[in-house]
């Protein structure tokens, strides 16, 4: 049985929904990452760590909407908090207590964040963190990591396509203002600062590269970044949209490096659209509505139901929950290495804590380019696992949620073993 035929025959309803979708949405979807060949399956509902597809299948969810559903799907405390808040009206053109309470939680958890503002996506979070850094420094050049993904606004869409394809629709002069440097390469970083340090508005990076390979930064690289940015008066921006789940105070706590600004997103809105950015008070003050020099607004910023969902989620994701998630992640990575040793396919795993990525490649995966090497081949393995009831990103990324236990990790490993057996050599 070929994986694609098997998939088509078990997902006829998703197939016809996709035909309907493709008639009214280009490519049949509105997210580039959710598509895979021959068509993605449609999900009807989620509960705990399981999804129910429109075709009536149950899938173990190791994607969690790209790290968003850290508590799994429809966690009762979050559903209750969001519903209760929504029933009292939602969106008033005036602040609510929930925004203050969620801001206080972020400030309490993350010492580098003295002040914070809310937005509606991780894209808006990084966009405004960068804007704040530009307003604060008066500089317009941004330094980012090759392949670093920070959402879809113009500045950060530079150097994100491993195929070298240029994304159209972005003014070409944006590229002139964006410098890139390779991941985990302190010498190249020193060089970049020696050449352009005094013109840089900020250096933005993920402490663990998420979609660019599941690659943790070396702590020495982060320390070099901290020292160089400090020496040049350049704000260091951590994109913790995904990595906040790695520690109670985010990856910055786990890796022991303090940025000036941080971008948040994903689970901090309890499953509703959200972003937030925060950091040093003197930088964040550029956004003061009357006294500041930069503008930030939005109809849905600090939406009350979103804030209520975020509060309930952060309260559930305590130190113990994070420790447990990270332990399960270690177990999964160790298990993958054992499975890989039993097969001829060149399988590797990267990641840290509750985030992981599988790579079908012979090369050691150290950066964006080596990570991209195996992603196309991975789609076959993805489909073979999907056909056996385990869902993850078509390009190999995965992560864990709190309803998962050792049993779900075992199922993942057994499924991986069986899927590799079924893959053509
Ligand atoms: N930054 C990182 C590290 C991300 O992984 C993402 C999304 O996956 C974003 C920013 C953008 O967030 P959003 O999709 O909410 O705009």
Automatic annotation (TrEMBL):
Keyword Isomerase: yes
Enzyme class: isomerase
SUPFAM superfamilies linked: PLP-dependent transferases (SSF53383)
Pathway connected to this protein: Porphyrin-containing compound metabolism; protoporphyrin-IX biosynthesis; 5-aminolevulinate from L-glutamyl-tRNA(Glu): step 2/2
Cofactor(s) of this protein: pyridoxal 5'-phosphate
EC number assigned by the record: 5.4.3.8
Keywords: Aminotransferase, Isomerase, Porphyrin biosynthesis, Pyridoxal phosphate, Transferase
Coiled coil: none
Transmembrane listed as a keyword: no
Gene Ontology process terms (BP): porphyrin-containing compound biosynthetic process
InterPro entries for the chain: Aminotrans_3 (IPR005814), PyrdxlP-dep_Trfase (IPR015424), PyrdxlP-dep_Trfase_major (IPR015421), PyrdxlP-dep_Trfase_small (IPR015422)
GO terms for MF: glutamate-1-semialdehyde 2,1-aminomutase activity; transaminase activity
Pfam family name, one: Aminotran_3
Catalyzed chemical reaction(s): (S)-4-amino-5-oxopentanoate = 5-aminolevulinate
Domain of life where this protein originates: Archaea
Family per record: Belongs to the class-III pyridoxal-phosphate-dependent aminotransferase family. HemL subfamily.
Record's protein name: Glutamate-1-semialdehyde 2,1-aminomutase
